[in-house]
Amino acid sequence: SSSKEITTTVEPSKGKPPVTQDSVVNLDQGDPALYKEFWDGTGDRATIVIPVWQTMSYFSDLSGFCWFVEPGFEREVRRLHRLVGNAISDGYHLLVGTGSTQLFQAALYALSPTENGTPMSVVSLAPYYSSYPSVTNFLNSGLYRWDGDANTFTGDKCIELVCSPNNPDGGIRKAVIKSKSTKTIHDFAYYWPQYTPIIEAAGHDIMLFTVSKCTGHAGTRLGWALVKDTEVAQKMIKFMELNTIGVSKDSQLRAAKILKVVCDDYELSPIGKVNHLFHFAQRKMAERWSRLRAVVATSGIFSLPDELSSYCMFAKENVTANPPFAWLRCHKDGVDDFEGFLREHKIITRGGTKFGVDERVVRVSMLDTDEAFNVFIGRVASLK
Ligand code: PMP
Predict the structure, then answer these.
(1) Mutation probe of ligand 1 site: the residue of 28, 167, 206, 240 with most atoms within 8 A of C-beta
(2) Does ligand 1 lie within 6 Å of residue 100's CB atom?
(3) How close is the Cα of 192 to the center of ligand 1, in Å?
(4) How far apart are CA 279 and CA 272, in angstroms?
(5) How many Å is the maximal CA-CA distance in the chain?
């Protein structure tokens, strides 16, 4: 078909090298490779072809609230939230970003006052996502600066980052700073049914989501924000204008089609008849977690956070959480640098200090390929 010709005339990206029985297995990043199997199985239903004369303009919709949001993308995102029930989207402005990483920076910009000249403190409860300190500080902004663990914060005004379920440890979190002048950014990258029971439709001031961890399309680099306050949303839009003059329309169209297929499958086909995305990923994750818990239980030297379960409004039953990362602790005498110890055994992980805690714990991605996960499990089982 003509669509095949179009997609095969340019060489596709090579991705990461394959993992073999004795190669290094890299589970440092949370690359969502696990989803490839699902999308392989859907054939071309979610594939799009963009004619060369389309998406040429800078503008998506000059009559909308945000001129660079594709109306089709906005429609499918709102539909997805209604389907899953993880967030309230009615009454919220929807913004799009190059990954939620860009929207995170737009939110810091929008929430930091410009008047008094002292940078706004940015905090998050430890262990916190390792990118928060680095992304907050890398430009040495005069508007905001990283101020560490929310538990040790003593000032009266800050931006608190709330990640739930939490990267790295999977904890279900609420804001911990009670002061009225605190502003929050809720990072809901993993608030999807494959990772955690959907316990409520969240309705916070700024909520960030990403297709990276929802459908596995991290390379599309697309995130979205639900923002309650109009002025804050307008400032975020200004950031996006100055930073990248909007967001790729091609990516938005692709993501819109992908989300449309996810929603169509749930709305039009009974569960069990076709492969539904969240059910597929939930099953994969549950399988991986039970294998990991089994080898950890027999190891005698490792431990994991306790399993969490509760009623899921999406699944309409009690379900067990399957966090995207394993927060693995080592109790073996003499192993102080656990990341280094695992590296000697050809397993690359991310050590606790990057998340604001000690070195005897590491974060391991649970989202990689079957090959990488299998080799990882085999190596952990052999460690005594
Ligand atoms: N927030 C959290 C908690 C994450 O783990 C990630 C991805 N690792 C992101 C945000 C960023 O996602 P992206 O920029 O791919 O949308």
Answers:
(1) 167
(2) yes
(3) 13
(4) 9
(5) 64
Q: Rounded to the nearest whole angstrom, what is the distance from the C-alpha of residue 100 to the centroid of ligand 1?
A: 6
Find tokens 């430890």 and name the residue: 126
Q: Would the CB of 223 count as within 6 Å of ligand 1?
A: yes
State which ligand 1 atom lies nearest to the alpha carbon of 210: 16
Of the candidates 267, 263, 275, 92, the one whose C-alpha atom is nearest the C-alpha of residue 188 is 92
| H helix intervals, 42-181 | 71-84, 99-111, 131-137
- CB of 196 within 6 A of ligand 1: the answer is no
Helices 230-244 and 99-111 cross at an angle (nearest 10°) of 120
Query: For residue 2, is pLDDT > 50?
Result: no
**Is the per-residue pLDDT at 6 higher than 70?**
no
pLDDT tens figures, 129-176: 999 999 999 999 999 999 999 999 999 899 999 999 999 999 999 999
Burial class (CB in 10 A: 0-12, 13-18, 19+), 377: middle
Q: For residue 4, what pLDDT band results from cuts at 50, 70 and 90?
A: low
